Amino acid sequence: MKLDSLTLFHVSMPLVSPFETSFGRTTDRECIVIAARSGGLTGYGECVADRDPGYSYETSHTAWHILKDFAAPLLLGQDVADAADFQQRVASIRGHNLAKAGVEMALWDLLGKRDGKSLREMLGGSRDRVPVGVSVGLQESPEALVQAVGKYLAEGYARIKIKIKPGRDVGDASAVRKAFPKIKLQVDANSAYTLETAAALRPLDDLDLLLIEQPLNEDDIWDHAKLQAQFRTPICLDESIVSPRHARYAIEMKACQIINIKAGRVGGLSQAVAVHDLCRASGLPVWCGGMLETGIGRASNLALASLPGFTLPGDISASERYYARDITRERFTLNDDSTITVPSGPGLGICVDEAALKEFTLNEMTLCE
Ligand code: NPG
User: Fold this and answer.
1) How far is residue 279's CA from residue 277's CA, in Å, rounded to a whole number?
2) Would you give the DSSP letter of residue 346?
């Protein structure tokens, strides 16, 4: 498809409640919305780079720079056939996966709208609703955490993830396990430990957790292999898996037993599908991670999570868990069986609420050939 223009929207959206992880506290989620135009069609994508470089080295400002000064000149006026063609064209940009993935998403939306196919169909998804859970940020105390978890369980979420950090790990997880002995529970450290300090996590092995996510450095695979050898509970890698190649390294090194797939982190939906295929061939379960997406990225995550290897519930909660007002007309809701229905319309299957997008836009720029 010939790309006529790209419009970048630097967006900041207030969260319904602050979200705290081992790397910081967010009250307003930033991202870049990308509108790609081809002929009379507009495809939307979401670049999940945040304001601060806490999760990734990329930020909304570095992504803006990469998109404007490097990606757009490689793409505008060009006939971009598909995602593989897109990846080849941006291969000269080293790293900056979150930026690239935002444009790839917009391209999929365009292709789907052109061909009258949903993203789920195009990616090879096999389910029309996907199992989901909720990720609960660090709270003031273990008691407050138990209360927050109880609220989400009452809303119908059948899988809970809690954030941990040194000093707020075994105590928090034990309190939740004690209050809710039977629930599917997992923890996420967001790289807050070293191989040495992770010794404090040993008691987690007795809490019947689904997994322990990314305990060690964001660029580490080797030490995770050493740590996995010391734990019965599966280690799940998130930050460390930035490409299908890194997934292969982790599998070959036995650094984890589960992988969290985020299209942003691996540089696009096509790369996410490649990681999925590799894990499936190796018998590793995967699940879809979340980055507090708007309705645009949420639609993309739902389509991705409909692939058959996504056998664990994703961090894809209902819209109301994140935003009082979203930038899509659709609001995603939780079904009775802790699933969310995958959009079935062409492309992402969503309609952007232009007025809401305008309300949350800090800066906007259109790039043409
Ligand atoms: O439900 O979208 C969600 C949030 C899931 O915990 C979640 N995301 O480390 O995976 C993470 C974390 C995150 C949020 C990471 C925002 C980066 C930015």
Assistant:
1) 6
2) S
- Beta strand 5-21 with 24-38 is antiparallel
Looking at every residue in the chain, the average pLDDT score rounds to 98
Q: Which DSSP state fits 136?
A: E
pLDDT, tens digit, 9 for 90 and up, residues 25-52: 999 999 999 999 999 999 999 999 999 9
Distance (angstroms) between ligand 1 centre and the Cα of 41 equals: 31
Class of 121-341 per CATH?
alpha beta
Which fold does the domain 5-116+354-368 belong to in CATH? Enolase-like; domain 1 (3.30.390)
Average pLDDT over residues 212-227: 98
Ligand 1 nearest atom to the CA of residue 214, by list position: 9
Residue with the smallest CA separation from ligand 1 atom 5 is 290
**Residues contacting ligand 1 via CB (< 6 Å):** 21, 50, 55, 135, 188, 190, 238, 289-292, 315, 317
* CA separation for the pair 328, 41 (Å, rounded): 17
String of DSSP letters for 7-40: EEEEEEEEEEEEEEETTEEEEEEEEEEEEEEETT
Q: Do domains 5-116+354-368 and 121-341 have the same CATH topology?
A: no
CB 292 within 8 A of CB 318: no
pLDDT tens-digit readout, 285-330: 999 999 999 999 999 999 999 999 999 999 999 999 999 999 999 9
For the CA of 29, the closest atom of ligand 1 is: 16
Is the model's pTM score more than 0.70?
A: yes
The answer to whether the beta carbons of residues 270 and 101 sit under 8 Å apart is: no
